[in-house]
Design goal:
Elements (H helix, E strand, L loop, with lengths): L3 H7 L3 E3 L4 E4 L7 E3 L2 E4 L8 H7 L4 H7 L13 E4 L2 E3 L7 E5 L4 E5 L5 E6 L2 E2 L9 E10 L7 H9 L19 E5 L3 E4 L10 E3 L3 E2 L2 H10 L5 E5 L3 E5 L5 E5 L7 H5 L10 H9 L3 H6 L5 E3 L2
Parallel strand pairs: 7-16, 10-14, 13-15
Antiparallel strand pairs: 1-2, 2-9, 3-6, 4-5, 7-8, 8-9, 11-12, 11-16, 12-13, 17-18, 18-19
Length: 298
């Protein structure tokens, strides 16, 4: 359950839809939004961590980053889960759809409003990458998408002993879910028939969302909307009150060797920025990579 005292504090700037989290935008010059909340795993729990992620509008990776050591398959009764609902907005325009692949989140800025919808996503597997730096637009939308997997995809499934048909009709068993938003010529933002993949690298390169999230986007995002992909595992902000904040996520592996290695992937930051952050007392945040904003400096 969610502690009432913590929830009341968090909801001062955040409201909840079915799965996405809606934030009130901060004024220009500020990029820090929301507040973390705590969830207690109830007695007799039989649910995986993904269920708690879905209930709080997070992806599996978001809860794993914030709660290291928690069993993803069956969190222990009484475990206090930190829900990372405080976020630093990506340092780009507040327009259309912004996808930060490093944190596995999608940001949608409704036109003419003062809010941002934040949704967890699944992205492409290592070797079948989701774009990391790209600006495009919504080309078209389709309710009840079909799926024609490429020969290469069918071969990959066959290596695992799985038979994949050449054509998958629309319906609840389709990996693309019930709605698809096509961007550019090769990619789509779509639903899923496997919620466990939200917050993981599991797709063939497209963006996966939980079905209620893609339904919301399908109904609200018009054709022609700007879509930007960024890859920012390290985000910083200096707020109007002078406070400095740092948010660090596990960066995406750049190749198969990094993906399969046991050591951490190096953070893609310049030596100058690293030196500055270290001087501000951010060493533990850079090492911990909690995916949550940490106050640094004086």
């Amino acid at each position: 359950m969610i502690r009432p005292s913590m929830l009341a504090f968090a909801l001062s700037a955040v409201t909840h839809s079915v799965l996405a989290v809606t934030y009130t935008l901060p004024p220009e010059g500020s990029r820090l939004i929301g507040a973390p909340i705590m969830v207690t795993v109830p007695e007799g729990n039989t649910l995986p961590l993904e269920a708690f992620a879905a209930q709080t509008g997070q992806g599996l990776s978001n809860l794993l980053e914030a709660n290291p050591g928690v069993d993803p398959f069956l969190p222990a009764d009484g475990t206090q889960l930190v829900v990372p609902q405080q976020i630093i907005l990506p340092p780009t325009v507040r327009e259309g759809v912004v996808v930060n692949v490093a944190e596995m989140r999608l940001y949608y800025y409704p036109p003419g409003g003062n809010t941002v919808e934040v949704m967890p996503i699944g992205i492409g597997q290592a070797g079948r990458e989701t774009p990391r730096n790209w600006v495009t637009t919504v080309e078209r939308k389709q309710e009840g998408p079909t799926w024609s997997p490429t020969p290469n995809t069918r071969r990959e499934y066959a290596k695992e002993g799985k038979t994949l048909p050449a054509f998958v009709p629309a319906g609840p068993d389709n990996p693309m879910g019930l709605y698809a938003i096509y961007i550019g010529r090769l990619y789509a933002i779509h639903g899923t028939n496997s919620n466990f993949g939200i917050g993981l690298r599991v797709s063939q390169g497209c963006i996966r969302l939980r079905n209620s999230d893609i339904k919301y986007l399908f109904e609200n995002v018009p054709v022609g909307t700007r879509v930007q992909f960024v890859d920012q595992p390290v985000k910083t902000t200096t707020e109007p009150d002078g406070s400095r904040w740092l948010e660090v996520h596990e960066p995406l592996s750049r190749n198969r060797a990094e993906f399969e290695a046991t050591q951490k992937v190096p953070l893609p930051i310049s030596p100058a920025l690293r030196a500055q952050l270290v001087s501000e007392g951010a060493e533990s945040a850079l090492e911990r990579r909690s995916g949550m904003p940490v106050k640094i400096g004086i």
